[in-house]
Design goal:
121 residues; mainly alpha; Arc Repressor Mutant, subunit A; 3-stranded antiparallel sheet; 5 helices; 62% helix
C-alpha cells in the first residue's frame, strides 16, 4: 500500500484528529487512562458506536493503546501512547485559547442562530 504524502504538517495532524470526536476523546485521555464507560460519560453526546469506531481508528493510528485486563467481568482501559501524548501537548494551547474566548464564541454562535431563526421565519 502506498504511503500517504502530506503537503504540510497541519494536514497530517488533521488526518489523525479529524472529525467531530477524536479531539474530544484525545483530550479526555490527556491526563489519565480511562475505561470505556468513563470515556462515554466524559465525551458528552457521543454514541457507543461512534466511540468504539473512533477508538479503533485512534488505536490504528498509534494515538491510543487499549489495555485488556482479561478479567471477568471484562475490564478494558484506554490510554494515550507517547505519540498521543505529544499530540495532546500540541492541543493544549488550542484548549487554552478556547477557555480564554469561550464566552465570546458562545455569544457569536447564539447571534448566528438567532439570525438564522429570523431569516427562516
Amino acid at each position: 500500500m502506498k504511503r500517504k504524502t502530506y503537503s504540510c504538517g497541519l494536514e497530517a495532524a488533521l488526518d489523525v484528529v479529524g472529525g467531530k470526536w477524536k479531539v474530544l476523546i484525545l483530550w479526555a485521555l490527556h491526563d489519565e487512562r480511562r475505561r470505556f464507560g468513563d470515556l462515554r460519560r466524559t465525551v458528552s453526546g457521543i454514541s457507543e458506536k461512534m466511540l468504539i469506531q473512533n477508538l479503533k481508528e485512534m488505536e490504528a493510528d498509534g494515538i491510543v493503546i487499549r489495555h485488556d485486563f482479561r478479567e471477568i467481568p471484562p475490564r478494558v482501559e484506554y490510554a494515550l501512547t507517547s505519540f498521543g501524548i505529544s499530540l495532546s501537548a500540541a492541543l493544549s494551547p488550542l484548549c487554552e485559547w478556547g477557555q480564554l474566548h469561550m464566552a465570546r464564541i458562545g455569544a457569536v454562535k447564539e447571534e448566528e442562530e438567532e439570525a438564522r431563526g429570523r431569516i427562516e421565519a
